[in-house]
Design goal:
Residues 28-152 form the Bulb-type lectin domain. The protein is an all-beta fold and 269 residues long. It has strands spanning 30-32, 36-38, 43-44, 50-55, 66-71, 79-82, 96-100, 103-107, 113-116, 127-131, 137-141, 149-152, 160-161, 167-170, 175-176, 179-184, 187-197, 204-208, 212-216, 237-243, 247-254, 263-264. The chain has one domain (30-264): Agglutinin, subunit A.
Length: 269
């Protein structure tokens, strides 16, 4: 398959009208060590931007439920992150998200672990999972108001790149942060297309079937990607690129923080 240099083929941004809805929730942005989340219970980020709960994708009639994040202030349900994207649950009322053995863990209806933060070393402190208003779910030691994060969802995105998150390459472990498309509109399992930062190169590539180059942004010149000239007319995003011995990454913010925007690795590539 030939490389395609068409600008912005999958990086879609959305500016969506706002609306507020009422939802059953724990009334907080935190899951503490003695709390759990099940059924229709949700947690909401402190400023009300995001909600974490169970959802059914698309118009699926199947009893497949996924634990995911969505925008709260968008009328059309818009999922930005999925925990158990490959392993749905069939009974959300008996499936539980809680802190267990130093990890945030999702148990299915048979109380089998189907998703976990998968930390090797456990903390001796009192852990808590906090849902930040930028859409980042973090696991941290809450016993001393420590700012050190043990795990964060920004390091494990699914198909969406939110403002403030990094699209990175770890120069030590040689691992990428990848955006991977959904399989289809009814199934959030990993699909055919992935976006990642190239090793030793400040450009992004889209891979088809996880290995075949499909599109290239061209290298970063300090202001734009060379094969995306439309970025010269940009009044929306403020991009920055950082490269050091530990990692190389892009991150971005919005010139107008009141806008709602995201980049998406679409199922169409």
């Amino acid at each position: 398959m030939d490389n395609k240099k068409n600008p912005w083929p999958v990086l879609s941004f959305f500016f969506i009208c706002l609306s507020l809805n009422n939802h059953l929730s724990l009334g907080a942005d935190t899951i503490s060590a003695n709390q759990s989340l099940s059924g229709d219970q949700t947690i909401v980020s402190k400023g009300g931007n995001f909600e974490l709960g169970f959802f059914k994708p698309g118009n699926s009639s199947r009893s497949n439920y996924y634990r995911g994040m969505r925008y709260m202030k968008v009328s059309l349900r818009t999922i930005v992150w999925v925990a158990n994207r490959e392993t749905p649950v069939s009974d959300k009322s008996s499936s539980v998200l809680r802190i267990s053995d130093g990890n945030l863990v999702l148990f299915n209806e048979s109380q089998i672990t189907i998703w976990s933060t998968n930390l090797c070393s456990t903390s001796s402190g009192l852990l808590e999972a906090v849902f930040l208003d930028n859409g980042n779910l973090v696991l941290r030691d809450g016993s001393d108001n420590s700012s050190k994060l043990l795990w964060q969802s920004f390091d494990k995105p699914t198909h969406t790149w939110l403002p403030g998150a990094k699209m990175a390459y770890n120069n030590r472990t040689k691992q990428n942060v990848r955006l991977i498309s959904w399989k289809n509109s009814e199934d959030p399992a990993p699909g055919l297309f992935a976006l990642e930062l190239q090793q030793n190169n400040s450009s992004y590539i889209i891979l088809w079937n996880k290995s075949v180059p499909y599109w290239n942004s061209g290298p970063w010149d300090g202001n734009i990607f060379s094969w995306v000239p439309e970025m010269r007319v940009n009044y929306i995003y403020n991009f920055s690129y950082v490269s050091n011995e530990n990692e190389s990454y892009f991150t971005y913010s919005l010139y107008n923080p009141s806008n709602i925007s995201r980049f998406v690795m679409d199922i169409s590539g």
